[in-house]
Design goal:
Blueprint lengths: L4 H11 L14 E3 L5 E6 L13 H20 L4 E10 L8 E11 L4 E10 L8 E11 L12 E3 L4 H24 L16 H16 L24
Parallel strand pairs: 1-7
Antiparallel strand pairs: 2-4, 3-6, 4-5, 5-6
Helix pairs in contact: 1-3, 3-4
Main location: cytoplasm
Catalytic activity: butanoyl-CoA + H2O = butanoate + CoA + H(+)
GO molecular function, one term: long-chain fatty acyl-CoA hydrolase activity
């Protein structure tokens, strides 16, 4: 499921109706996405790396969280709280002496949460002409009020082109998170016996199948396999449920 995550996002964007009501919203009440853009440069020093000179993954994650928090705060004008991190990718290493360019921008803002996309590029001063894309992640932030309840957030207005693509992909990732939350929170008696497959519910069915298998493993009144005939090849067959 993790390896097919990118393909699942593409399928959702191609075959499903992702809520896109930008045209119906009041532009005067929307915050331009470019206003939330943040870029920071960090120099990798020896304390940031292991004995082989590779940067600690946790250090990069901390830097990424910093720029993502700043981007989120530019939308809500308050201190945001990190809620979840979606699909953190370590695409390549960086070493001591590298300069890391960390970029963050709010991709989409929902009623009570916002998604911030972060990417990290590495280069060595004077030695490389192109930057290497080494890390990326999507972080979800909320803003809590005095009662620790999520506040309503302003809408985001994406830039045409890549901004609108990131906006729609953020909606697709939210759908996956909600499907996953629904499957995990379901009680055994609430699980459907059979759900017809459809491109629009493939994410839901993937998590449903995994959850059903986990429930089946916990049962002790079924036999995994049996040997039908010793003279024949061994056959794996469920015999009792």
């Amino acid at each position: 499921m993790r390896l097919l995550y990118a393909d699942t996002i593409k399928d959702l964007l191609a075959n499903c109706v992702i809520q896109d009501d930008l045209e119906s919203r009041d532009c005067s009440c929307m915050v331009p996405a470019e206003r939330t853009r943040v870029e920071s440069v960090e120099l990798v020093l020896p304390p940031h790396a292991n004995h082989q000179g590779n940067t600690f993954g946790g250090q990069i994650m901390a830097w990424m969280e910093n720029v993502a928090t700043i981007a989120a705060s530019r939308l809500c004008r308050a201190h945001p709280t990190l809620k979840t991190i979606e699909m953190f990718h370590f695409r390549g290493p960086s070493q001591v002496g590298d300069r890391l360019v960390l970029k963050a921008i709010v991709n989409n803002a929902f009623k009570h949460s916002m998604e911030v996309g972060v990417c990290v590029e590495a280069y060595r001063q004077g030695a490389e002409t192109q930057r290497r894309h080494i890390n990326s992640a999507f972080m979800t932030f909320v803003v809590l009020d005095a009662d620790d309840q999520p506040r309503t957030l302003p809408w985001i207005r994406p830039q045409p082109g890549d901004g609108e693509r990131r906006y729609r992909e953020a909606s697709a990732r939210k759908k996956i998170r909600l499907d996953r939350k629904y499957i995990v929170s379901c009680k055994q008696t609430e699980m459907p016996i059979s759900v017809p497959w459809d491109p629009s519910n493939q994410v839901y069915l993937s998590y449903n199948n995994v959850s059903s298998l986990k429930m089946l493993v916990t049962k002790d009144n079924w036999v995994l396999s049996s040997e039908i005939n010793q003279d024949l090849d061994e056959t794996v067959k469920p015999t009792q449920l």
